[in-house]
Design the sequence.
């Protein structure tokens, strides 16, 4: 017989039994939200239009980490410019880490966006040496093979290298003891080297399109050296940083201007998603798909493309929970709509509810949390959005991270468990 159990009380019981210290840190508490009149708090919930069995399994896994410090949660956040900026996603990364308690976390996939001449997340730092050409999934015909990062760079320069710094804190937050370099040489006999802690380390294993390093100690930075030439260029698609402890990994994959078809162009996506193996997939793709005339927006094609992307992920983890973020209210950047709002947002909203029902996922209805049609004007007035009424500013993105987290925790506290 099904019983309604307050999950939060179960968690508190576990914490009292196994980890009293974790209780004092305020695990599972809602984040305080400033008094903004533009926020519709009544809409700040996770909508679960279908079966919640996948969410129940996920929450049970989170409970186990919180109570016993055993297990691991992998989160993949895919989107466009909202994600590439790294503010929204990193706020969620920090909030989710607080949810699981004082356990080790890792930063996930990173990419040197500055080498491509574009903006990069500020929660880590990357630089390159040598000459590189680039491609990204928003290119109509990408000249390089792309993967889960949505971008790639290629070099035939003998001085080519990629350096990174995860900006770990004094408590060793984000340190890694496993590193996966995504990419390949044209000469399959070659492989990169990792310089870490003064040592030069060879790959522990080599697969098609991936090199795995396992340093004998934890580190927070490093440099990947590539020996390449005109006859043997190297293609680089990012680095996945991990550690062997229980906890959480939050992967952010965002490309400015990316639509769902753009992500479907990533031919290595299927291969690389297995290294992430996400338990939660946060999907915030849609605002670029909907930036067309209402007469040209085909909602059935939109859902079909989304299903193709979802199926590629479900092939790796059939139990992954998909959380769809609806498009934020925005103005449609075409003639005749620049002063109003984008009517396609309503179609995308319903499409996500349909997809969540189909895949037993959830929807965070950002469109309604903002206040619905035309609400972006007030978000600009309250200095949470940029004047383009599409992108948020730092305060706005951090607010979204707290609102999403509160919606997630609200559902986490009250769920049906068999």
Sequence:
């Amino acid at each position: 017989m099904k019983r309604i159990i307050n999950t939060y009380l179960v968690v508190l019981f576990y914490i009292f039994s196994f980890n009293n210290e974790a209780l004092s840190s305020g695990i599972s508490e809602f984040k305080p939200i400033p008094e903004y009149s533009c926020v519709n708090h009544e809409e700040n919930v996770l909508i679960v239009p279908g079966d919640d069995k996948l969410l129940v399994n996920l929450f049970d896994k989170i409970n186990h980490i919180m109570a016993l410090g055993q297990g691991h949660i992998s989160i993949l956040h895919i989107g466009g410019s909202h994600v590439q900026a790294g503010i929204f996603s990193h706020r969620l990364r920090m909030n989710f880490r607080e949810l699981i308690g004082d356990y080790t976390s890792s930063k996930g996939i990173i990419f040197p966006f500055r080498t491509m001449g574009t903006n990069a997340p500020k929660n880590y730092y990357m630089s390159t040496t040598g000459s590189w050409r680039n491609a990204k999934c928003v290119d109509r015909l990408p000249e390089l093979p792309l993967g889960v990062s949505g971008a790639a760079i290629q070099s035939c320069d003998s001085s080519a290298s990629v350096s990174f710094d995860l900006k770990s804190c004094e408590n060793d937050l984000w340190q890694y003891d496993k590193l996966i370099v995504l990419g390949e040489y044209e000469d399959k006999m070659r492989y990169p080297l990792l310089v870490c802690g003064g040592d030069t380390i060879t790959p522990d294993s080599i697969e098609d399109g991936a090199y795995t390093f396992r340093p004998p100690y934890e580190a927070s930075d490093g440099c990947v050296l590539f020996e390449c030439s005109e006859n043997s260029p190297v293609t680089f698609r990012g680095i996945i940083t991990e550690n062997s402890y229980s906890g959480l990994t939050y992967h952010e994959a965002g490309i400015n201007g990316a639509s769902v078809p753009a992500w479907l162009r990533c031919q290595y996506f299927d291969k690389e998603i297995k290294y992430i193996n996400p338990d939660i997939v946060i999907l915030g793709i849609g605002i670029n798909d909907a930036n067309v005339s209402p007469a040209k927006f085909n909602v059935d094609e939109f859902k079909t493309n989304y299903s193709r992307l979802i199926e590629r992920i479900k092939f790796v983890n059939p139990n992954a929970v998909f959380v769809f973020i609806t498009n934020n209210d925005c103005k449609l950047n075409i003639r005749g709509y620049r002063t109003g709002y984008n009517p396609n947002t309503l179609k995308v909203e319903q499409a996500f509810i349909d997809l969540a029902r189909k895949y037993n996922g959830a929807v965070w209805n950002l469109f309604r949390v903002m206040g619905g049609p035309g609400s972006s004007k007030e978000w600009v007035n309250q200095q949470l959005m940029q004047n383009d009424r599409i992108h948020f500013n730092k305060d706005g993105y951090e607010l979204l991270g707290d609102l999403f987290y509160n919606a997630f925790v609200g559902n986490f506290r009250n769920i049906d468990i068999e």
